[in-house]
Specification:
Layout (H helix, E strand, L loop, with lengths): L5 H4 L12 H8 L9 H4 L8 H9 L3 H8 L6 H7 L21 H17 L20 E5 L3 H12 L3 E5 L8 H4 L8 H13 L3 E3 L10 H5 L6 E4 L5 E2 L12 E3 H11 L3 H7 L4 E6 L3 H11 L4 E7 L11 H9 L3 E3 L2 E9 L2 E12 L10 E12 L2 E4 L3 E2 L31 E3 L2 H4 L4 H19 L2
Parallel strand pairs: 1-2, 1-4, 2-3, 4-15, 6-13, 7-8, 7-13, 8-9
Antiparallel strand pairs: 5-14, 10-11, 11-12
Helix pairs in contact: 2-4, 2-7, 4-5, 4-7, 5-7, 6-7, 8-17, 12-13, 12-14, 14-15
């Protein structure tokens, strides 16, 4: 897929990957073997997209039919085509990948969804894939969905399609959850997410924004005076985890979630972009996952930033980040400091001036096969930095859920693994709020599974 050159893309927040042309898409689709077992679908896709079928339609030039096939199973084809860890899922299970390069399934999904959106926006075709279902079919029962992230949106789509009256509640101003506040626009443009959310509105889903669980709404009130027959909890894992070391109270220390949220809210406003990372200068990102990649690549693009480095306590082989994201970060000039752990954020006059670190070495593999980082005595040293971004993970905020069992320690919602039912009758949960931070498509799979179980429950 064509992309912006590194020296150009670091100067803007435009989408890096530019998408397939029609000729490229057809040529790539023809590489699909249309194999009988299609492990890309059965083993690789959490929502069971009909991958060989939609790809075959591309080879025939039937792009709208390809889009229709995709939207039978996914509510966010343009999103998933961009941000899913395809190398672990569909493309990681592609038969072509056994002896070479797998079919670029994600890029083909993106091509189909983008072409559909552009044709609708140009007035060439009408949006026909998201029509409101007949509410009488479901006896007008109402379902509340908490959280407008991937799990909530997928659940809402299937429930609305079954004829239920669905209302999605979220504490943010804009629907999308982590898709809206946690992924930079150079990976997921706002108009892409907005279009797919608008399709849900067209399908009859209602959105109630700025509604916080435990403050503005509660499970008791939803299932009581508001008359909802069931509730799905898909509130994600949006509370950032801190480093837990001295100095994190200094000005210039920020969580990756807050940093990315500020950037997404800033848009093209240069003053707001500068305010998102006011310390600028040299920026250190702590962590090695996809959020760390989003943070470091975003920091490179911020006004006043001279240098960006990622500090990770294991080696590059253990980094959980998508290899493609890691490669693009390196192309954009991000430096990586491996086998290093932060000990303290240093500062003067309340502002960050440095990061005290310690060298690490990896132990022998434990029972799980993972090598634990072990400090090397006497290896402490200091990195001169002006800002520190914490990207070491997040957890759920599950306080105040009436009658719902929460696990000790991690604070996750406890569910039946088969049905996703919680300890309270009529209340289901799925996605990151149950499993901890996972992928967008895994959360969507949980949302779809919960929807099918809620329908079973409401039908008695």
């Amino acid at each position: 897929m064509p992309t912006q050159e590194p020296e150009e893309r670091t100067k803007n927040f435009n989408e890096v990957a530019e998408g397939f042309t029609e000729e490229m898409a057809v040529r790539e689709a023809l590489r699909c073997l249309q194999c009988r077992e299609h492990p890309c679908m059965t083993e690789g896709c959490p929502v069971s997209n009909h991958i060989p079928d939609f790809i075959k339609k591309i080879t025939e030039g039937e792009y709208e039919e390809a889009y229709r096939i995709l939207t039978e199973t996914t509510v966010l084809p343009a999103v998933c085509g961009r941000v899913c860890p395809k190398y672990l899922q569909c493309e990681g299970n592609c038969v072509r990948g056994e002896k070479g390069r797998p079919v670029a399934i994600g890029s083909l999904e993106r091509f189909v969804a983008d072409l559909h959106r552009k044709r609708v926006q140009a007035g060439e075709i009408e949006e026909t894939t998201a029509k409101a279902a007949d509410p009488e079919k479901a006896a007008a029962k109402k379902v509340a969905v908490i959280g407008s992230g991937p799990a909530g949106l997928a659940c809402a789509k299937d429930l609305a399609g079954a004829g239920y009256e669905v209302t999605v509640f979220d504490r943010a101003e804009t629907p999308g959850g982590v898709l809206s506040y946690g992924i930079p626009v150079f990976r997921l443009p706002d108009e892409v997410l907005s279009f797919e959310v608008d399709n849900l509105t067209a399908a009859g889903v209602h959105f109630e924004m700025n509604k916080e669980m435990g403050k503005d709404i509660s499970i008791d009130s939803l299932m009581g005076e508001q008359g909802f027959s069931a509730v799905f909890l898909g509130n994600g894992a949006g509370r950032p985890m801190g480093l837990g070391i001295p100095g994190t109270e200094l000005a210039g220390v920020i969580s990756a979630a807050d940093f990315l949220d500020r950037l997404n809210a800033a848009g093209d406003d240069k003053e707001a972009l500068s305010a998102a990372l006011p310390a600028a200068g040299t920026v250190a990102i702590i962590g090695g996952g996809n959020v760390a990649m989003d943070a470091c690549r975003s920091a490179v693009r911020c006004p006043g930033v001279d240098k960006v480095c990622v500090v990770y306590r294991r080696s590059v082989k253990e980094m959980p980040a998508d290899p493609a994201e890691l490669k693009e970060a390196m192309e954009e000039g991000v430096e990586f400091v491996y086998l290093t752990a932060p000990l303290e954020v240093l500062g003067e006059n309340g502002k960050v001036t440095g990061l005290k670190c310690q060298k690490m070495e990896l132990s022998e593999p434990d029972a799980s096969g993972r090598r634990r980082p072990v400090p090397i005595e006497g290896s402490e040293y200091t990195i001169s930095v002006d800002a520190v971004i914490e990207a070491i993970g997040s957890r759920s905020d599950n306080d105040g859920l009436d009658g719902v069992e929460i696990s000790e320690g991690k604070g996750l919602i406890v569910t039946d693994p088969e049905t996703l039912a919680t300890s309270r009758a009529g209340v289901y949960a799925g996605g990151d709020t149950v499993t901890g931070p996972k992928t967008v498509i895994a959360a969507m799979g949980a949302g779809r599974k919960a929807a099918s179980e809620i329908i079973r429950y409401l039908k008695g």
